[in-house]
Design goal:
single chain, 402 residues, alpha+beta, 7-stranded antiparallel sheet, globular
């Protein structure tokens, strides 16, 4: 299996400055390569420049600017150019598919936070033998940085990435050949219904409360964002007070993100430990949280009809705060490591199908919490009904596979 390990770095003050310089210079390389592609297309008869040509120029760039480009790993700079090449590949793919293209943008300060080393030992080195009980990672141009390794690394380290999140620095190890650690069989299969009022409900009737981390810190976050918005545009990124306020907003978002991630890991681990098979709805959260299209008013040129965007925004915020997509991804990874099976099923009408008589009707869902069949009168909690239907559909899927 392929797995990623993320550890907190504990750099010295000098190493922190060097890490910031590394991000700055790789960002400069990215922006310069992007500018070259734009100029080549606009002014050279729409000539395209690819990764191969730009990578071949790296030797000359490093020789021309040894202080800012020559001090860093050659392979990490190639990875930065590949990152730009992937951005253009995704752009042309969206153009071909008729979607909103999203042309690659220049990276400003604070919007380029990761440097990747494609191979352990080439410009970087993960030291698996700790010195004085301290694990270290060596980066070219930075030195040996202490690592807070809170769990053992298994498998073979393939790539190493250094990432900045606010004022913290992390190292991310991508490893392959990670062995599975199968858990003992329980003989239990469960269906899971995702929600906003309850984070999830299982087919055996258990509810997991939705912690709503964003709502819990909404007042503090709104106050910090209002304070940040009071600074005039000319003062942004220039004054000490503005930078301090921006750091506060960033720290609050990072705290919410860490709380949500910790909750997802613990909840998924509990499901994996107690069940052999976990069935869940196949959810398209990107589509579910898309804003409704505007409705033009035929009687008023330039006017629009109500489209429910305000009400939809509250639901979208609740779905994104719950983080369904991240949770289901973590659940799938943990299931693979533990030898469990995760079965995604079609989500259509799971909350409208009566589990007793199989009657389907929108009116069966009386309220958010109440389900009552209009045909047979069966009544139950709506989330529990959804989880039960998910479990039944998973049984059909497993029978077809068998």
């Amino acid at each position: 299996m392929i797995r990623a390990y993320k550890f907190l770095l504990r750099p010295t003050a000098r190493q922190t400055v060097a890490l910031g310089d590394m991000l700055r210079d790789h960002r400069s390389l990215y922006n310069g390569a992007l500018q070259e592609r734009r100029d080549a297309y606009r002014h050279a008869s729409k000539t395209t420049v690819g990764y191969g040509g730009q990578s071949a120029q790296l030797k000359e760039i490093r020789a021309f600017d040894p202080e800012r480009q020559g001090r860093w790993s050659f392979s990490s700079q190639q990875a930065t150019l590949r990152r730009l090449d992937k951005a253009f590949a995704a752009f042309f793919r969206r153009v071909k598919a008729g979607r909103t293209p999203g042309y690659p943008r220049f990276k400003g300060v604070g919007h380029f936070d990761t440097v990747t080393f494609p191979k352990d030992g080439d410009g970087c080195r993960w030291d698996s033998t700790p010195h004085n009980r301290q694990t270290r990672v060596r980066l070219q141009g930075v030195g040996h940085i202490r690592v807070h390794q809170h769990r053992p690394v298994q498998g073979r380290v393939k790539t190493i990435s250094v990432k900045r999140e606010g004022s913290r620095w992390y190292v991310v190890l991508s490893c392959d050949e990670v062995p599975a650690e199968a858990l003992p069989d329980t003989g239990v299969i469960v269906g899971v219904d995702m929600g906003v009022v309850h984070f999830l409900t299982t087919s055996d009737g258990r509810h997991v409360a939705n912690p709503r981390f964003l709502r819990a810190m909404a007042d503090e976050l709104a106050e910090a964002q209002r304070h940040l918005a009071t600074f005039p545009k000319q003062a942004r990124q220039r004054t000490k007070r503005h930078r301090a306020t921006a750091r506060k907003v960033s720290k609050l978002h990072a705290k919410i993100r860490r709380q949500r991630n910790d909750f997802h890991h613990k909840t998924s681990r509990a499901l994996i430990a107690d069940h052999d098979v976990i069935a869940h709805e196949r959810l398209n959260t990107a589509g579910m949280t898309r804003s409704p299209a505007p409705k033009a008013d035929p009687e008023r040129p330039g006017g629009f009809l109500p489209n429910g965007a305000a009400a939809k925004a509250g639901l979208n915020r609740g779905i994104l705060d719950a983080g369904w997509a991240q949770f289901l991804g973590i659940l799938a990874n943990k299931a693979e490591s533990a030898g469990r099976l995760v079965v995604p099923v079609d989500a259509r009408d799971t909350s409208r199908v009566c589990p007793a008589c199989r009657h389907i009707a929108k009116e069966n869902r009386v309220t958010q919490a109440k389900f009552q069949c209009t045909a047979c009168g069966f009544a139950a909690n709506a989330d529990h009904v959804g989880a039960t239907n998910v479990l039944k559909r998973a049984g059909l899927v497993l029978c077809d596979v068998a």
